[in-house]
Amino acid sequence: MTNGIYVTDDTRPLQQGDIVLGSGVVRLTALQDIFIPPAWAGIDTIQSQLSTSKSGDSGLGAIGGSSLVMVLSHDCQLDKELNRSARNLMKSDPSLTSEEAFEIAEKNPELDRFVLVAPLVDVDQIPNGGDQNFTNNVLRGAMLGYFPLQDETNLAISRTVVDLSYRSTVDILTLTQRLTSLSDIARMQLRYALARMDSLRVPVLDASFSEAIGQKITDIQSPRKASPTVRLILENGKALEVLLPATSTDQEGPTRKKTRVAKSK
Q1: What's the confidence (pLDDT) of residue 190?
Q2: Distance (Å, rounded) from C-alpha 138 to C-alpha 132?
Q3: Is there a contact between 161 and 119 (Cβ–Cβ < 8 Å)?
Q4: Any bridge partners for residue 170, and if so which?
């Protein structure tokens, strides 16, 4: 992770990559055999039993607690309902300007009420089986499921990673204070970490790239409409599929003007 990955701009609305204080995370667990991983021990401090329809089953439980979290929801998802509401307002009343429509839509507190977050955890609390190389790989971003953060003494962040395997949908009203946000480059790295875990897993490109070395690209095809991949046709007749980068990772963020979280201190 390069230096200067954090930015502070209290005028921007909530967006992907924000580190927020005061939120909680929660997960489901089997009550007959509750397991709390060491890395989550400081988070999973509250348990609650949920009703179950299975006779004789000990039931499900909700377990979680407060944690410093990172917002994972993509910017377009954060304002999806707001944008749709504003467009509908302008359709129903053509005299409304875009600014007026969004101002009206923003007054509805129920729009875009929920966001996806993941907790920040101490890397030294993640079991490594005595293998320090594992911990080092987590800190440099080589392990799936973890997004390492640059140390920042002012934020009390040291040897900290975002645990992408512990994701939780939370009410936006539980987000009390934004401490900082990721820079444009760091947000791109976060998106790659999410895509690598959820879609690409462990992309093995060695053999494909080896076959492409020295070959000219004779054609470029898009397998499917609006597909995030393109197919490169090589002069030897073989094809190489590559994933296109996100079209934009700028800091403009969502359309919403209000931050909906307290300003950083």
Answers
A1: 93
A2: 10
A3: no
A4: 115
77 by Cβ neighbours in 10 Å (0-12 / 13-18 / 19+) ranks as middle
Question: pLDDT at residue 214 above 80?
Answer: no
CA torsion angle for 102, 107, 108, 110 (degrees, to 10)? 100
Query: What pLDDT is attached to residue 133?
Result: 92
Q: Mean pLDDT over residues 35-63, rounded?
A: 82
Question: Buried b / exposed e across 127-143, counting CB within 10 Å, b at 16+?
Answer: eeeeeeebbeebbebeb
- Closest-CA residue to 123 (of 160, 149, 150, 165): 160
Residue 36 CA to residue 64 CA, distance in Å, equals 10
| CA 99 from centroid of its chain's CA atoms | 29
- Read off the pLDDT of residues 128-138 as tens digits, 9 standing for 90 and up: 988 899 999 99
Q: Which two tokens stand for residue 96?
A: 């409304």
DSSP β-bridge partners for residue 30: 60
Rounded to 5°, angle at Cα 71 from 115 and 225? 75
- Secondary structure (H, E, C), the chain: CCCCCEECCCCCCCCCCCEEEEEEEEEEEEHHHCCCCHHHCCCCCEEEEECCCCCCCCCEEEEEEEEEEEECCCHHHHCHHHHHHHHHHHHHCCCCCHHHHHHHHCCCCCCCCEEEEEEEEEHHHCCCCCCHHHHHHHHCCCCCCEEECCCEHHHCECCEEEECCCCEEEEHHHCCEEEEEECHHHHHHHHHHHHHHHHHCCCCCHHHHHHHCCCCEEEEECCCCCCCEEEEEECCCCEEEEECCCCCCCCCCCCCCCCCCECCC
Confidence of residue 171 (pLDDT cuts 50, 70, 90): very high
